[in-house]
Design goal:
The complex is a heterodimer. Chain A is an all-alpha fold. Chain A is elongated. The two termini of chain A are about 20 Å apart. Chain B is an all-alpha fold. Chain B has nine helices and two strands. In chain B, α3 packs across α4 and α6 packs across α7. The N and C termini of chain B lie far apart (about 55 Å). The chains are: A mainly alpha, B mainly alpha. Chains A and B meet through α2 of A and α7 and α9 of B.
């Protein structure tokens, strides 16, 4: 294994995806948490809040998913 | 089964294929004038036919009191019309409803192929379909933006008057890249990556589970790890149904939002 750079490439892209997933993870937590707070305060606004929450989650999640795709590109290349 | 021939049940704890491409690429059935037709293309046409059939048989007759099936379909159509088109775009939304509706139903059926017994392959996990749909969306909202606002659409994006002058170039640059470049890419990648991840996870968990459970007589106690994989796979299966519906909804919702942002550009 010593000096074997080939063996490292797959592991490195795995670490890269892990790092890429941290930010969106925190972001989705904030979005969902605030949506719950908003729903608890104003239950009559539930429909609008839920739509906006899914939208926020989808936009945040895109970063993690780009990382996921790049992981396969990097480990295949 | 691709995994079974290669899986080393004695030393491994999960059966992963050597190359993930073999889960998504099928051998060609026949070639038609330079176009290779494989299982993916057949399923794509099948999804379009199912979409047409579902809508035709549900709504071919306008009844005063709809049948159960017709009422369910009307609810879905009403959801796209009121929840997506009119809620997001406004009164003008009805004009874009045919496009949004077609896309929602096609994506819904294409995504649900992932969990449909006997098919088990989401056609949206091949990049061509999400990319094509997002490019159509891109053309529509670019066209609407330039038709409504002339070249102010481009100029005000690069030079937003509402922002303090020191930051204006930076905001303009970010807006330019995000609207004209990143929007179609992220729209396509979001759907594609979700479906790839789902299909990959289901295949790995369920086949690993099955292989280890059937190998219990040979490898003994270690084979029980398969029970855990299979249970997790079944749980993910239920989750994937939710994700399939949600992703079709989000794709349509974002299309509507992009069109809206082109119509009411000045806000």
């Amino acid at each position: 294994m010593e000096g074997n750079i080939e063996a490292l490439t797959g592991a490195l892209s795995l670490v890269g995806y892990g790092l890429g997933a941290v930010g969106p993870g925190i972001g989705i937590g904030i979005v969902a948490g605030n949506a719950i707070t908003a729903m608890a305060r104003q239950p009559e606004m539930q429909g609008t809040i839920r739509t906006t929450m899914f939208l926020g989650i989808a936009l945040t999640e895109a970063l993690a998913l780009i990382g996921f795709v790049l992981f396969f590109i990097a480990s295949a290349g | 089964m691709i995994l079974a021939s290669e899986c080393d049940v004695v030393n491994e704890v999960i059966c992963a294929p050597a190359d993930v491409n073999e889960l998504f690429e099928f051998p060609a059935i026949f070639t038609l004038g330079g176009f290779v037709v494989s299982r993916t293309e057949v399923l794509m046409i099948f999804a379009a036919l199912v979409t047409v059939a579902v809508l035709y048989f549900g709504l071919r007759q306008q009844r005063l009191v709809p049948t159960k099936y017709g009422a369910a379909l009307e609810g879905l159509v009403g959801f796209v019309r009121d929840g997506i088109a009119r809620d997001v775009i406004g009164t003008e939304g009805t004009k874009y409803l045919p496009y949004l509706m077609t896309m929602f139903f096609f994506l819904l059926i294409g995504n649900l192929f992932e969990v449909a017994p006997g098919i088990n392959f989401p056609i949206t996990s091949r990049m061509a379909i999400p990319l094509f749909l997002s490019l159509v969306t891109y053309v529509i909202f670019m066209f609407v933006g330039f038709a409504r606002n002339n070249f102010r659409y481009l100029i005000d994006t690069v030079w937003p008057k509402a922002v303090p002058i020191g930051l204006r170039w930076l905001v303009g640059l970010i807006e330019l890249v995000s609207i004209f470049l990143l929007r179609p890419i992220t729209l396509a990648v979001r759907l594609f990556a979700n479906m790839v991840a789902g299909h990959l996870m289901l295949t790995l968990l369920l086949t690993s589970g099955l292989i280890f459970i059937t190998a219990i007589p040979e490898i003994g106690i270690k084979g029980t790890v398969g029970v855990f994989w299979f249970a997790l796979g079944l749980f993910m299966f239920c989750l994937e149904i939710l994700i399939a519906v949600l992703q079709a909804y989000i794709f349509t919702l974002l299309t509507a939002i992009y069109i809206e942002s082109s119509i009411h550009f000045e806000h």
